[in-house]
Amino acid sequence: MSYTVEQINGCTKKIIFNFETLDLSTEIKNAVLAKQKTVSLKGFRKGKAPLDMVQKMYGPQIEHDALNRFINNQFIEAIEKEDIRVVGYPTFENMNYESGKSVSFDALVEIFPSVEVKDMSGLSFKRDKVEVNSDDVEAIKKNYLNSKAEMKEITDTNVTLDKGMFAVMNFQGEKADGEKPENMKGEDFLLEIGSGQFIPGFEEGMVGMKKGETKVIELTFPSDYHAEDLKDAKVKFEVELLEIKSKEYPEFSDELAKEFGFESVADFDEKNMKSMEMQKNRAADEKLHQEILEKLVEENTFEIPKAMIHQQEDYLKQDLTRNLKAQGFTDEMCEEYFNKWHDDLHTKAEFQVKSGLILDTLAKKFNVETTEADLDKKIAETAEGTGADIEQIKKYYTSNEQIKKNMMYAIREEKTFEKIKETVKIG
Description:
alpha+beta; Alpha-Beta Plaits; 4-stranded antiparallel sheet; elongated
């Protein structure tokens, strides 16, 4: 064996190669002969250049290529023989080559870490209680009826503005230095009170106003506000309430329910109650799963390959780039965003890699497998929860191999979480 393996740390190994005798002359000679047949040199027809001239011009590069092939072949043979699970690409260093005599070099490789998860039986978590009531269904009805609702002015001058009402107003913001920016001004502006459209405190400050009333609302912009010059800035807004309006919805009748694709109001209530319950249960599970992952990452420390973190960072950037460009961001704006939030992206990527490795380890420990039956069950659940056609959903997940693979991976994680929840305490 012409190599030895050293463990550098939990996720790095060094393979030290040393070939005291190395003769690449046969490979080089054959490569020069092959090159002679294809090369065109000045003064000679293609394939007719003298061999020594071809050797002189292309020999060094051919020898370099032959050496690289030898090194790569030896590296691949070594990692296969030693069953080393390499992550990313190797780093070759300490190269020492004497033409026609010997070669030695080191290959530094990152490997998949060995993860051992501590006993979880002592861990306890609390799952949010899920409740669905008629108010939830009524909120859904309002969303459906929005397109048919009418905005009407409240003419009673004694009525005061409250949450859920709409204000038609003029407003002008003034900074501490007296400046009144144009982007802090509005005329005949329609605002739903309680919508959170304006900065915290603005809508709350308008509650109780009457039509025709003018009021000065003093506020402080949030520290994470998108405009740099307004972060933590103290401002005051002079607001004139021109009108108070309310949105009036028609009665949700069986006829309207049919128009929205349901058989009746009762059918609407039943299906949306079930859908809302599924959504809330899913949200409660996702929150619980995140808390479990955070605890498992905290409890189990191990080294992870930098290559895996970089790969996950690239994935996050690609996903974010799609979302940012959908919002109108340019390439330059995306780059600025990534520079600003680099540390957060790195931390998120590191957490995702660690939690993924922990889940994979536990999936193997619990012998979790995914089958076509699992996929069919998930498709049926999705159809029931969304009301979409089951055949269309099935076609979506089975027509693209990568989409199907991603779904099978998600199912494996879900089944792993079920096993984890059987081990830990859930309150």
